[in-house]
Amino acid sequence: EVQLVESGGGLVQPGGSLRLSCAAPGFTFSSYWMYWVRQAPGKGLEWVSNISDDGSITSYAHSVKGRFTISRDNAKNTLYLQMNSLKTEDTAMYYCARSPWYEASARGQGTQVTVSS
Q1: Can you name the residues that pair with 102 across neighbouring β-strands?
Q2: Facing residues of 18 across strands?
Q3: How far apart are CA 98 and CA 75, in angstroms?
Q4: Tell me, what DSSP letter sits at residue 99?
Q5: What gap in Å lies between CA 9 and CA 106, rounded to an integer?
Q6: In the prediction, which pLDDT does 26 show?
């Protein structure tokens, strides 16, 4: 089971911003593509974004494109997700993950993001 520790979640008003972090000790972080996924209350797991091992390739779900930015610092073994212009529908538990992201053993414990006025 991979060790991943997310932080940075919280309560924010619509239109606000948050920056999530994910510490990844215990494996060769720089060798892996990494993912952010989320799960809203009562819904299934949703892929949000991914980034290549060297950070040169990024992809986003249509629902967050233009608002979220994924990045990584391989020297610090840390993955980030900058979230701007947050909407109520972004409310979810956010997880960082290694492949395969749909497996619970490949994800951290998550950090809760709540967007509400």
Answers
A1: none
A2: 83
A3: 17
A4: S
A5: 20
A6: 83
Query: pLDDT category, 66, cuts 50, 70, 90?
Result: very high
Chain centre distance of CA 60: 11
| CA–CA dist 9, 36 (Å, integer) | 13
> Alpha-carbon torsion 102, 106, 109, 110, what sign?
negative
**What's the CA gap between 106 and 85, in Å, rounded?**
28
Name every residue whose Cβ is closer than 8 Å to that of residue 28 and which is 6 or more positions away in sequence.
Answer: none
What number of other Cβ atoms are within 10 A of residue 100's Cβ? 10
Distance of CA 29 to the CA centre of its chain: 15
Q: Is the pLDDT of residue 1 over 90?
A: no
